[in-house]
Amino acid sequence: MRKEVAVTPAKDSKIDGAVAELKRKINEGFYAAGQRLPSEREIGQELDISRITVRAALQRLEAENLVSIVPRAGAFVRSPSVKAIINSPGVAIARGPELKRSGSFIRAMEAQGRNTLVRFIEPSSIIPAGESIGPRMDATADTNVLRRYRIHLVEGVPYRILDSYYLANLLGGLLGKDAGYIPLFKWLREYTGLRATRASEQLECRMPSAEEAALLNISRGQPVIDMDRWVWANDDRLFEYTHIVANGALHEFSYTYDIEEEASQ
Fold it and tell me: Which secondary structure element, helix H or strand E, spans residue 120, and what is its range?
């Protein structure tokens, strides 16, 4: 029979203390980016704590994107990565869905002076929507869609995976144009006369799959933000469905909404 071990406040306090001390050394440059941290045994001896406590502290630092734990190799300090703040009044992406003002995560990051890169996991292709994507786009299974499967990197760090599907009769002209960054909404307006006017997003927090963790260069124990996005044109056509998986430690979401009068009654 498995024995359940309760985490006591005293143990939590020791973990907090270890996290704070390791953070201090990373922030002050005692441990540089890319450097391997001392072993669990060495850290435990230095801080007078058990290896179990050290391991818990390292796992928390990994969840905060400060270190990467490599099995059988140790923990390594990650390069500094600033959070992408979504819907904050202080940046280009603001108020409402992420696409509302900037039209693009890439544009918003570049406006903050960040170096960005779009890397395609697979070449773009035109495929039937099928039984999975068709219903998500209010389309039949045999409707042709343009698929673009890619990663957004900021300062060389993978921030998010995007698996996008667009109506091929509108955006099929982007097939093969995988090099560099093309502002999709600008392209849509220039070549079709249509304008993106409305988006809906659904978010949840979960743990990544093995493939997602590998693509984002994170551990299986580090949370990701799972987002489904739908975008409509000014003629009310749903022309885009995108599934996004983002490194939770590198994204911060803020929202403003009205509270109905009934809530106070």
Answer: strand 116-128
pLDDT tens-digit map of 28-86: 778 877 688 999 999 999 999 999 999 999 999 988 878 888 777 788 887 666 666 55
Per the structure, the complete domain to which residue 29 belongs is given by 9-77
96 inside domain: yes
Q: Could you give the residue ranges of the DSSP H alpha helices within 28-161?
A: 40-47, 51-63, 105-111, 130-133
CA angle 108, 109, 110 (to 5 degrees): 90
Q: Are residues 67 and 161 in the same domain?
A: no
Residue 5 has pLDDT above 50, yes or no: no
Q: Identify whether the C-beta of residue 241 lies closer than 8 Å to the C-beta of residue 228.
A: yes
Give the number of domains in the chain.
2
CA dihedral for 17, 18, 21, 22, sign (positive or negative):
negative
State the DSSP H helix or E strand holding residue 161, giving kind and residue range, or none if neither: strand 157-167
pTM more than 0.85: no
Whether residues 153 and 208 share a domain: the answer is: yes
